[in-house]
From TrEMBL:
Gene3D superfamilies: 1.10.10.820, 1.20.5.4820, 1.20.58.530, Kinesin motor domain, Myosin VI head, motor domain, U50 subdomain
Localization of this protein: Cell membrane; Cell projection; Cytoplasm, Cell cortex
GO cellular component terms, A-Z: cell cortex; microvillus; myosin complex; plasma membrane
The protein's name in its UniProt record: Myosin Ic, paralog b
Main location (coarse class): membrane
Keyword Repeat: yes
Keyword ATP-binding attributed: yes
GO BP field: actin filament organization; actin filament-based movement; endocytosis
Keywords: Actin-binding, ATP-binding, Cell membrane, Cell projection, Cytoplasm, Membrane, Methylation, Motor protein, Myosin, Nucleotide-binding, Repeat
Residue ranges occupied by any TH1 domain in the UniProt entry: 848-1022
GO molecular function: actin filament binding; ATP binding; microfilament motor activity
InterPro entries per the UniProt record, alphabetical: Kinesin_motor_dom_sf (IPR036961), Myosin_head_motor_dom-like (IPR001609), Myosin_TH1 (IPR010926), MYSc_Myo1 (IPR036072), P-loop_NTPase (IPR027417)
Length: 1026
């Protein structure tokens, strides 16, 4: 039975209960009558969908009932409960496995399974975008998704290894990339995109991780009440005594400057924040060590990795004092005395900055190495199969607004602007594609296009990043303040940009002079420019790089490449690198089918059950949830496939109950007509019904609830008589046996095919005869469907090996038959035309430029009719029959003056006519040959013997139909092999032993004139390249 959950209820199954960590039992699904208590499970069904208050109230109702998941169409909204809910067990995984998206209540597993099934059935890569602010539960969501795939996907020994490594990559990356912040005890301080690769069976066989913008500044400084990265505390608290001794560490975080730079009210260590009640560093250390082994780290690699972590702590303890010269000197007793040489001649402030820069560079590059190492262990090594499918997981920082916002928040919020732009575009695109696929008219949706903000940040030469890079690279005294001034000069007039100088009096009161404000899609954010240039440059002194390249630590050797020392090109700035990586991320996401999980933090104090409406309203705004809901509700609130809709509500109409035998569309039309739906309330697509208003659907649901009670009391539900049950069982048995027989036959056929394929190269035998016969039959049927259509069609299906000879005979017979059929249909006139065209092709193809233009034009019998030829000429011809006549231009032998003439061809000679006079008669026997150029001009020369007294010399003529004319001359004079095509020039006899020359040159237009050297110059355009 098909069940569609429209709001949280389970009218056809028993209610499911969950036990919260505090022992409170809460209902997951409620009956229809509890709609007011638990709200709707899809915000699209909110009656007042434009009201933010109604949106938040629906979230509140569900949160109070421990229903932390709600849909906006296919988007999942998740509220962090800050307690353990028993809704992630294997039983829950099985409940959502392979089930239609809307058949069960909203859940992370529903989105995961829907993406997985779409990847398998549609063979299209998927991605799941998880977003939200720190503490909203993004990292936990990504871990739950990985666990779901690890449990529910097919497994083998290799697959199990990959599953384990995928799962164990999380604690390692969390240790090195997560930290305790004011908002979250396990805050990801980097963005992560992970590809999970699946083979054709749907099993995970590999993975790949891309990391974005690690917060390296945390290594050397943390805000009030925050901690450094977890790995430092885990190593100190959980590391074995022997390990700590080798690393030169003490089991006391208070001894290390990089761990006590923040001030907090901590129970164990007043004045710093190493201990957090929700974090067990010692236990986490064991998990990380085990995970490193599972991923494939050797003991030597782990040792060297931990050496780097310890070195960073030691580096932080390097203290400086000032010399009389003003230079810095190291005052602390440490193992790295060589820093004294490296840091001179820096002053105290520069030396401290250089030390911190080195610490950040070492940690940041080590983190990148760590990600690459994990990728190597997850790489799919089977080269025989490349076409795997992919599901991507994007766990990236949400929109951030702090009391003091710096370069990191600027980059993070720029990233969120790009993701919001992508989110709206893809949501609109998927909506429009669904409407078009169903034949429903799409009405354009008005929405805020944040491209204007993205351009403000990233536009070439004029965007904030370009201006920041320009300030970082320009010579002179560039500073954070000059950067701010440059912004005011360049983008000061932008509607989404404000500074203290440009603001009105009211805004100036809440803005510092060293701040600029961006009006993001999610709201206004003030950014303090102090530190922007240093963080964007992210530079390291060359001598420090040289020392790192000389390190004996193999990991550091890989992190610091010696090529950096010889490469004179300045490395890209941090903002430019982030912009480029973000552009690549957008390309990756655009190439996949997206699903969305929007995570919300209910309160800042991490208390279970507390719902802070002000905080949640802020998150609803910057996550763009109302905008998404408005886009989804712009047309129809509810849409379902016909079979699903009819199956659920068929009992409401006598014509569709108990079964509808006709077309599904007709059944749904009959049902909604009986229910009294008005035309403006619904539309019928090609395979779905679209309902515009939630109230229409709720009324239908209420009618269904009432109908269930009446059905339970109707005579139709009285127990059927035993004979009726017997007949039904007998008929079902027959149908089942028929299905079983068909399955057996199908299995036998598949088995015979597989065996035949295995023995296909052997002589005919019982094992392969069925397969070979089918291959022959299949080839002949394919040949029958794909026979050549005409004599020019040379296509022919590739035959199997056994039919190669027969196929060749068939091909020849087919061609002979087509040629014979074609020849029978040719008329004498058309045959004569083709013979002339063949001769023209033989003479001119690939030799003369204007030949291709003549091919589609038919040759005519004559270019002059009887009226155009003087009667005296016809009388002079007497009994000679004229075969062809064409107007030509004759060029005099001496001055090359152009004169109009007519060229007549008879059976015996060619005659040149001037009005009523026969000016020259050239017998074909006396015609030595014909010369023509290779260009597109129409000039040609008739060569005659120089010792013939009857002839005055060779004749230079020009015809507008030169291909046709010369073909006729060649046929009439039988001089096919005497047509000469020349390149460059033609030499001809003028008379009395004198010679003339015609020079041919390519040009833009046709020009014929006498040149200064006495030659006849012909310029002709080049029509075709030969």
């Amino acid at each position: 039975m098909c069940f569609i959950a429209l709001w949280d209820r389970a009218p056809l199954i028993e209610p499911t209960y969950v036990v919260a960590s505090d022992g409170v039992r809460a209902m997951m699904e409620s009956a229809l009558t509890a709609r007011d208590r638990v709200g709707v499970q899809d915000f699209v069904l909110l009656e007042n969908h434009t009201s933010e208050a109604a949106f938040i109230e629906n979230l509140r109702k569900r949160f109070k009932e421990n229903l932390i998941y709600t849909y906006i169409g296919s988007v999942l909204v998740s509220v962090n409960p800050y307690k353990d809910l028993e809704i992630y067990t294997k039983n829950h995984m099985e409940r959502y496995r392979g089930v239609n998206f809307y058949e069960v209540s909203p859940h992370l597993y529903a989105v995961s399974d829907n993406s997985y099934r779409s990847m398998r059935t549609e063979r299209k890569d998927q991605c799941i975008l998880i977003s939200g602010e720190s503490g909203a539960g993004k990292t936990e969501a990504s871990k739950k998704i990985l666990q779901y795939y690890a449990v529910t996907c097919p497994a083998s020994e290799h697959v199990q290894t990959i599953k384990d490594r995928l799962l164990q990559s999380n604690p390692v990356l969390e240790a090195f990339g997560n930290a305790k912040t004011l908002r979250n005890d396990n805050s990801s301080r980097f963005g992560k995109y992970m590809d999970i690769q699946f083979d054709f069976k749907g099993a995970p066989v590999g993975g790949h991780i891309i990391n974005y913008l690690l917060e390296k500044s945390r290594v050397v400084h943390q805000n009030h009440g925050e901690r450094n990265f977890h790995i430092f505390y885990q190593l100190i608290e959980g590391g074995e005594e022997d390990l700590l001794r080798r690393l030169g560490l003490e089991r006391n975080p208070q001894q290390y400057q990089y761990l006590v730079k923040s001030i907090s009210c901590c129970r164990k260590y007043p004045g710093n924040c190493p201990k957090v009640s929700s974090i067990n560093d010692r236990s986490d250390w064991k998990v990380v060590r085990k995970a490193l082994t599972v991923i494939g780290f050797s003991e030597d690699e782990v040792e060297e990795l931990l050496n780097i972590i310890a070195s960073v702590l030691h580096l932080g303890n390097v203290q400086y004092g000032g010399e009389d010269s003003g230079n810095a000197c190291i005052t602390s007793d440490t193992q790295i005395k060589y820093l004294a040489r490296l840091m001179s001649p820096l002053n105290l402030e520069q030396a401290s900055s250089a030390r911190d820069a080195l610490s950040k560079a070492v940690y940041g590059r080590t983190f990148t190495w760590l990600v690459n190492k994990i990728n190597a262990s997850l790489a799919y090594t089977d080269d025989s199969y490349k076409n795997w499918s992919v599901i991507g997981l994007l766990d990236i920082y949400g929109f951030e607004v702090f009391q003091n916002n710096s370069f990191e928040q600027f980059c993070i919020n720029y990233c969120n602007e790009k993701l919001q732009q992508l989110f709206i575009e893809l949501t609109l695109k998927s909506e429009q594609e669904e409407y078009e696929a169903e034949g429903i008219t799409w009405e354009p949706v008005q929405y805020f296009n944040n491209k204007i903000i993205c351009d403000l940040v990233e536009e070439k030469f004029k965007g904030i990043i370009s201006i920041l890079d320009e300030e970082c690279l320009r010579p002179g005294d560039a500073s954070d303040i000059t950067f701010l001034e440059k912004l005011e000069d360049t983008v000061g007039g932008h509607p989404h940009f404000v500074t203290h100088k440009l603001a009105d009096g009211k805004t100036r009161k809440v803005m510092g002079r060293d701040e600029f404000r961006l009006l993001h899609y999610a709201g206004e954010v003030n950014y303090n420019v102090n530190g922007f240039l240093d963080k964007n440059n992210d530079l390291l002194f060359r001598n420090l790089k040289e020392v790192m390249c000389m390190s004996e630590n193999k990991i550091l050797n890989q992190c610091f490449d010696r090529e950096e020392l010889t490469d004179k090109k300045r490395p890209d700035t941090a903002a430019t690198q982030f912009k480029a990586s973000l552009a690549k991320l957008m390309e990756i996401l655009m190439s996949k089918e997206p699903s969305y999980i929007r995570c919300i933090k209910p309160n800042d104090s991490k208390q279970a059950g507390r719902f802070d409406e002000v905080l949640i309203r802020h998150q609803v705004k910057y996550l763009g949830l109302m905008e998404n809901l408005r886009v989804r509700r712009a047309g129809f609130a509810y849409r379902r496939r016909y079979e699903v809709f009819l199956q659920r509500y068929k009992s409401l109409c006598p014509d569709t109950w108990p079964n509808w035998r006709g077309k599904l569309a007709d059944g749904v039309a009959t049902l909604v007509k009986h229910l009294g739906y008005k035309p403006e309330e619904y539309k019928l697509g090609r395979s779905k019904i679209f309902i515009r208003f939630p109230k229409t659907l709720f009324a239908t649901e209420d009618a269904l609830e009432t109908r269930k009670h009446s059905l339970g009391e109707s005579p139709q539900h009285v127990l059927l008589s035993l004979p009726t049950i017997g007949i039904q069982a007998w008929w079902r048995g027959i149908l089942a046996r028929r299905r079983a027989q068909r399955r057996r036959q199908a299995a036998d056929t598949i088995r015979r095919f597989i065996k035949g394929f295995i023995y296909r190269h052997q002589e005919r035998c019982p094992e392969n005869e069925y397969f070979l016969d089918y291959v022959r039959y299949s080839f002949l049927m394919k040949l029958r469907r794909n026979l050549p259509k005409n004599v020019l069609d040379k296509s022919w299906p590739t035959p199997p090996a056994a039919l190669t000879e027969a196929s060749e005979h068939l091909r020849k017979m087919c061609m002979q038959n087509m040629v014979w059929t074609y020849c029978k249909r040719i008329s004498p006139e058309w045959k004569h035309q083709m013979e002339q065209k063949m001769i023209a092709s033989e003479i001119f193809k690939d030799k003369k430029d204007n030949y291709p233009q003549s091919v589609p034009k038919l040759f005519v019998s004559t270019r002059l009719n009887g009226e155009e030829i003087n009667p005296k000429v016809l009388q002079a011809l007497g009994t000679e029959k004229m075969k062809y006549a064409v107007p030509v231009t004759k060029y005099d032998r001496k001055g090359y003056k152009a004169r109009p003439r007519q060229l007549l061809l008879t059976a015996n000679c060619a005659i040149i006519v001037e009005e009523a006079k026969l000016k020259q008669r050239i017998d074909y026997k006396a015609l030595k040959g014909v010369s023509v150029s290779s260009l597109s001009d129409g000039l040609f020369v008739l060569h005659v013997p120089s010792d013939d007294n009857k002839q005055k010399g060779d004749v230079v003529l020009q015809s507008d139909h030169v291909i046709e004319t010369l073909t006729k001359v060649a046929i009439c004079a039988d001089k096919i092999n005497n047509i000469n095509i020349n390149q460059g020039s033609i030499t001809f006899t003028v008379g009395q032993g004198k010679e003339g020359i015609i020079d041919f040159t390519p040009g833009s237009e046709l020009l014929v004139a006498k040149a200064k050297n006495g030659h006849l110059s012909v310029t002709a355009p080049r029509l075709n390249s030969r």
